[in-house]
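Bug #77: duplicate submission created two jobs. Keeping one. Sequence:
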Amino acid sequence: MKTIDVCLTPRLIPDFKLEDKVVVVVDVLRATSCMITALAHGVERILPVATLEEAAAQQNRGLITCAERDGRKAEGFDLGNSPFGFMDPHLAGRTIAMTTTNGTKSIVLSRHAACIVVGGFLNLGALARYLTVKNKDVVVVCAGWKDRVNAEDTLFAGALAAKLADRFTHANDSVLLARSCWEHNRANPKHFLAKSSHFARLMGFGLEKDIDFCLREDVYHTVPVLDAEGYLVAR
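Kept job's structure:
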């Protein structure tokens, strides 16, 4: 039986052997939810980059750019980090360069994995099916907040582990912690997250609508996968 593991913060990525594994990067609030939404609404591909400077260089090449820092849209770029911004039909068929505080950094740091995919509650069921077919060991990389553990990504890791429980065995105790978090809060995840730091941060920006959307399950069948050229594309 294949294994599922959970990396609770990007700071721990060097402790994981990823070369022969599928990495699921998750930043529920909100980067990976935006990636899923964008590709589901017809964006052709997304180039994740780590820095604002890299995003600006892609903007100079004529790409649409998304840039977020500390929960807010970075000045001078086309889009922020709200999933609703990626539902614009004018983005269909376009390439977007994206940098965010935590999510894109986690993708870049995981580049030595055999395969990188993007997850969130929005594509939970489709992601579980994809991983089952892929039939490789899985590591869920929680983007967290500035290298610290956060509640929402850990909650999602537990939800995914629960979905895969009959096909994947737990690799270590971080999976047990994440699953316990999910099992105790699956009936009302928003109530649980209301105690968390990033929930409070986004609520302070008036973004409850974004939070509610990102916590919806199985809105899309899209699974973003990093291709050989470094772009996320829909599968």
